[in-house]
Amino acid sequence: MKLIITRAVKKDLPIILHIQRKAFQKVAKVFNLKSMPQIEQTLKNLMVEFRNCTFLKASIAKTIIGSVRAYNKEDTCYINKLIVLPDYQNKGIGKALMYEIENQFHNIVNHYELFTGSRNQRNQHLYNQMGYKSYKVEKYNDEISFIYMEKAQI
User: Which residues are CB-neighbours of 67 under 8 A, at least 6 positions away?
Assistant: First the structure.
């Protein structure tokens, strides 16, 4: 299983959206959530995001199995929607995507930020392993709160 991480192109977006929905449907099921913004995102909205973000994709044998996106503002890289197909989770693919997206912005930022569900201990553990520390929790709605995490450039 050779993992290849490259920049996504516009024609990858329908597949990335499909993976995003599958990954977050699993999260919604685990936490008994009716829905999540990540599941409801439309292809049109994703295309707008694509114009403003760097999208990476993780592939095995030319099949996309994961993605992450980020953008920079001033000296901070904002990372979001790290996604991996459920069948490929817990195999280091998310960590590989994170290292690569950080590397993409390494020379232009001093700081990285991201957020995850406050109840998602697995994601928080991954980000803590990678040097991210929480700095605030923000309520999204009655079911969802986000924990914001940051990491200084080494």
Answer: 8, 12, 16, 19, 20, 55, 56, 57, 58, 81, 82, 83, 97
Measured from the Cβ of residue 142, the count of other Cβ atoms closer than 10 Å reads 6
Work out how many domains the chain is built from and give that number. 1
| Domain with 137 in it | 3-152
- Relative orientation angle of helices 13-30 and 43-52, to the nearest 10 degrees: 110
The CATH number for 28's domain is 3.40.630.30
pLDDT, tens digit only, all 154 positions of the chain: 799 999 999 999 999 999 999 987 877 776 666 766 777 788 999 999 999 999 999 999 999 999 999 999 999 999 999 999 999 999 999 999 999 999 999 999 999 999 988 777 888 899 999 999 999 998 877 777 889 999 997 6
pTM check: above 0.85:
yes
Q: Taking the CB of residue 58, how many other CB atoms lie within 10 A of it?
A: 25
